[in-house]
Design a protein that fits this description.
Largest sheet: 11 strands, mixed
Structural class: alpha/beta
Oligomer: single chain
Number of helices: 11
Bound molecules: adenosine monophosphate, magnesium ion
Number of strands: 16
Radius of gyration: 20 Å
Length: about 350
């Protein structure tokens, strides 16, 4: 199959809308990452998403809408959802709500809830409006790889597999939506994203964060969000996180780079803009400013993909405090590193 990449004009939106209505797959930009969309009411179309991504069938999808009236055909709407929709839709907040039987099992992986979101990206909104179907859309990457934040990233993973990628430039937020469970008492963040815990608490009071956000699932622990079970966001090389005091981290990155290079590995560091100069001999990649986790979120997946393009084998990365957008960054970076980390002071004394 030939894969066309086109920027969003009226003709392309009409074509995309026709493909979706026929049960085909279309990749489109959102404010978080690129999505791989199919008609959420068409079970076969939804199964095609799992096949295109190589996604395990027990990892459910997010349904995208442009208009709250569509909810009636998808799920029950708990009272608390109204407040959250008023505050954060359209935007990067996904809510789990009790599903209706119109939604095929394939979308929810058989769960009793369905994840729903209203994206704010103008191209996503225009496409959803034009086709007027609920669109199931996970991130448009091959399963396990970093999510795509440009049309070129989607093409890397989906060339020859889907007919159309709508190019809307690079995604603003750069990490996926916040996934919030509102069906079990105190709302609980299953996946941190562009809408932070603090932002949510201003609207609904106490919000919990699932334990597995910053660590691997423990033996016997149930995955509240099935996606948390899987290896995710990983480049082919091994990522190691370097933690500790700022100047010690920089010194440790130099030492780790030199050791890995001397051992013959293609090596790179992922560092803050402020440390690019100090690390200029360590094949550095800039992940944004130390004080701006939003910048790090925006750059993160692109940087991880560049590591594969450059065939890096050993990758050492700085970390951000796990607060605000930093929580979303560390959730992704932790998984990219399979939770492998070292303390800078220990590296320096070894
Ligand atoms: P993606 O669309 O690739 O960004 O992944 C969607 C995320 O939402 C995955 O981590 C899923 O596990 C999670 N998710 C979707 N639906 C549900 C649901 N009904 N219950 C819990 N998590 C869900
Ligand atoms: Mg994904």
């Amino acid at each position: 199959m030939e894969t066309r990449v086109s920027s969003a004009d009226e003709a392309v939106l009409a074509e995309a809308s026709r493909l979706l209505a026929e049960g085909q797959l279309v990749a489109f930009p959102t404010e978080t990452v690129y999505g791989l969309g199919a008609n959420a009411l068409n079970a076969q179309a939804v199964l095609n998403i799992f096949a295109a991504k190589g996604r395990p069938a027990d990892n459910p999808l997010i349904v995208h809408i442009w208009n709250r009236e569509q909810l009636a055909g998808i799920c029950e709407v708990p009272e608390i959802a109204e407040k959250l929709m008023d505050a954060f839709w359209p935007g990067p907040l996904t809510m789990l709500m009790p599903r209706k039987s119109t939604i095929p099992d394939a979308v929810t992986a058989g769960l009793s809830t369905v994840a729903v979101r209203m994206p704010s990206h103008p191209v996503a909104a225009a496409l959803l409006k034009q086709c007027n179907l609920p669109i199931a859309a996970p991130s448009a990457n091959r399963s396990g790889k970093p999510s795509p934040t440009t049309a070129a990233h989607v093409l890397e993973d989906m060339q020859g597999i889907i007919p159309l990628i709508i190019d809307g430039g690079s995604c603003d937020v750069g990490v996926e939506s916040t996934v919030l469970d509102i069906c079990n008492g105190t709302p609980c963040i299953l996946r941190p994203g562009g809408v932070t815990k603090n932002m949510l608490e201003k609207v609904v009071g106490e919000v919990k964060v699932a334990g597995s956000v910053l660590r691997p699932l423990q033996a016997g622990e149930k995955a509240l969000s099935p996606g948390m079970r899987y290896k995710h966001y990983s480049p082919d090389g091994q990522v190691t996180l370097v933690e500790g005091e700022e100047q010690q981290v920089v010194a440790a990155l130099v030492k780790l780079y030199q050791h890995a290079s001397a051992a013959g590995h293609r090596t790179s560091v992922m560092c803050f803009t402020e440390h690019m100069e100090a690390l200029k001999d360590c094949h550095p990649h800039d992940i944004g400013s130390r004080d701006k986790p939003e910048e790090v979120a925006h750059c993160l997946f692109d940087t991880l993909r560049r590591m594969d393009e450059e065939k890096m084998e050993a990758i050492f990365s700085e970390v951000v405090p796990p607060e605000g957008m930093g929580l979303a960054v560390m959730n992704r970076l932790g998984r990219a590193a399979a939770f492998r980390s070292v303390q800078a002071d220990q590296v320096l004394t070894e």
